[in-house]
Specification:
Layout: H1 2-14, H2 22-72, H3 85-88, H4 105-120, E1 131-139, E2 142-149, E3 152-159, H5 165-176, E4 202-213, E5 218-228
Antiparallel strand pairs: 1-2, 1-4, 2-3, 4-5
Keywords: Membrane, Transmembrane, Transmembrane helix
Protein name: Flp pilus-assembly TadE/G-like protein
Transmembrane segments: 26-49
Amino acid sequence: MKKINRRIKRDTSRNRGPVLDSKTGGGFGVIFIGLGATFLAFIILINIADYSLFTYKRNLVSKAMDYAVNAAVQEVDLNESSAGLAEGFYENTGNKRMDGIKINMAKARKIFLSTFYQNCNLTEYKIDSDLLLCTTYAFNKKLNYTITAGDEQIGLGSIESPELLENKINQAISSYWIASEENSRVYINGNPKTNMIEKGTYLFAFIKDINIKGIYSKRSICLSSFAGAKADRADSNRY
């Protein structure tokens, strides 16, 4: 019986599989935690790099738009604008009058696009069909406006005050881009942080849905900018 019991013990001891001690299991746990932390840090770094690239491109596009609108607003229509010193100054006060100074929309659009592309330096953006321009000029105590989108004129009229221009532009955006959303609205003279214009010669630009790509993501934004014409009435041969 003793010999049989010994054989049974030997057989059972031989059938035992490998046993992991607590030290081995703890080592694997540390490895898994380390890999998880490394992966999480990698994801965070990728997200930071992605947003940094998006911010860089967005700022580049915004600056290019500002340069473009300031260049385009100087395209005064000499044939359509009031001419001469007699019409350029108020008779009673001698102050310079900006009434009747119109912008040539076709030339302004051409200059805007060329200046934008020269300063943007990103071939992925084509804004020709996504660009809305609005020109204004004062005449007879009213503000006259013309709105174009693409190569099409979509708005024309006169308003009593600059604040009313906001609604006219937003109506034009909604009618031209049927699926426009709330982020496509523009704001004029609402508060000092919005676009502030007066009765005068201005060019307002709006770019609809620019898709800016980061490393892996893509975000769509709308941009707007405006500038006033720097017309000089002192040269009678110019106006």
